[in-house]
Design a protein that fits this description.
Bound molecules: zinc ion
CATH architecture of the largest domain: 2-Layer Sandwich
Shape: globular
Order of helices and strands: HEEEEHEEEEEEEEEEEEHHEEHEEHEEE
Mean pLDDT: 78
CATH topology of the largest domain: Muramoyl-pentapeptide Carboxypeptidase, domain 2
Number of helices: 6
Number of domains: 3
Largest sheet: 5 strands, antiparallel
Radius of gyration: 28 Å
Strand content: 25-35%
């Protein structure tokens, strides 16, 4: 066992000095498949993936081998130190016994898609991305220029933990990207990074447009921005009705246009479960809901509930059978006037929710 291991290592011009002779593992490589034979003859196989970050000793073993293949991550858990690698007149790596293994795991070759970064308050940005099956969590990074140095600003544990709120100063522009991570023992294995999304200064944001000097902090302060707008709605029988909603004064025209368009395509809006302004916190985070800012309309909420990712397809939301569920035509109408739809969010689905600020 040891002789073969030493032979391989010597062939690479690396001198292995084992502290315990029986501890040396044998590594063989065929194409991109790596097999490690442990000292108890247990065989562990996997494929070499250059895009992952390895801990030092795995890299020392593998860097001389063919660098092809994919679909696999290398997982290394530190155990008992059994040796070191002497290379180019210095110690380059530390070897650990029985703690190196390679696991086929296609999931982490997927990259999350970063969807948006929007101001959620006068001092915070909300960032959303898509899930990668198999990820144990996500790391969010920010830079002040697209190609500059990125530093981690959030770590989200859990495969469906897809939104982060990060602090920001109003004059700053932030470039964001996210990557997956998996934990193995004391090691963290990172996946590749997502696309980059930029979030401009507060003044150039939609929230900044509505509140140039920052969002109000009380119901009384907010009411100065609101006007009651009477809007046309298609009734249950298809006739013409109206609904009156408090709306931010800067959004009266787009909201009127959207309701007119919904009326013209025959989409029925129920007054009993449609609303806008409500000074309150978010249902899922301790932040002020954007319903507090007069820039959100909830439409027919009984037919368009707020659901978790695991409840998708199991709720009352069904635009193909329920005429009160928001369909793609309705979504397109609101998007035309600058609104976003809660049904497009990644970390949950708020089907009723049309929001100017994407929060
Ligand atoms: Zn809502």
């Amino acid at each position: 066992m040891l002789k073969k291991g030493v032979a391989i290592i010597l062939a690479l011009s690396i001198i292995l000095i084992p502290i315990k002779a029986e501890a040396a593992n044998r590594v063989s490589v065929s194409g991109s498949t790596v097999t490690i034979t442990m000292s108890n003859n247990q065989k562990l196989t996997g494929k070499y993936v250059p895009s992952y970050r390895y801990i030092k000793w795995a890299k020392a073993y593998l860097r001389e081998y063919p660098r092809t293949g994919n679909n696999v991550k290398v997982v290394v858990t530190r155990g008992t130190q059994v040796g070191r690698i002497w290379n180019n007149s210095k110690w380059t790596a530390v070897l650990y016994q029985k703690k190196c293994y390679f696991i086929e795991n296609a999931a982490l070759t997927q990259v999350p898609s970063l969807k948006c970064a929007d101001w959620v308050s006068g001092s915070q940005i909300s960032v959303r991305w898509t899930a990668v099956p198999g990820a144990e969590g996500y790391c969010l990074y920010r830079s002040r220029s697209k190609t500059g140095k990125y530093t981690r600003v959030a770590t989200n544990k859990g495969v469906n933990n897809l939104r982060a709120i990060v602090s920001e100063s109003r004059g700053s522009v932030g470039y964001y990207k996210v990557c997956t991570y998996n934990i193995s023992g004391s090691e963290t294995i990172y996946g590749r990074s997502s696309n980059i999304v930029v979030c401009d200064t507060y003044a150039k944001s939609k929230l900044g447009y509505l509140f140039p000097s920052g969002p109000p902090t009380s119901d009384a302060a907010m009411r100065k921005y609101l006007v009651n707008v009477t809007l046309p709605v298609r009734t249950a029988t298809g006739g013409k009705g109206t609904i009156t909603l408090p709306i931010h004064k800067k959004l009266v025209n787009p909201v009127k246009s959207a309701f007119n368009d919904m009326y013209n395509i025959g989409f029925k809006v129920r007054k009993a479960d449609t609303g806008s302004y409500n000074w309150r916190k978010m249902t899922t985070l301790p932040l002020q809901s954007h319903h507090s800012y007069g820039c959100v309309i909830d439409i027919n909420w009984k037919a368009n509930p707020l659901v978790t990712l695991s409840q998708i397809g199991k709720s009352a939301y069904n635009p193909s059978t329920n005429p009160y569920s928001i369909n793609q035509k309705v979504v397109n109408i609101w998007k035309k006037y600058g609104f976003s739809w809660g049904g497009d969010w990644t970390e949950k689905k708020d089907y009723m929710h049309m929001t100017y600020t994407n929060n």
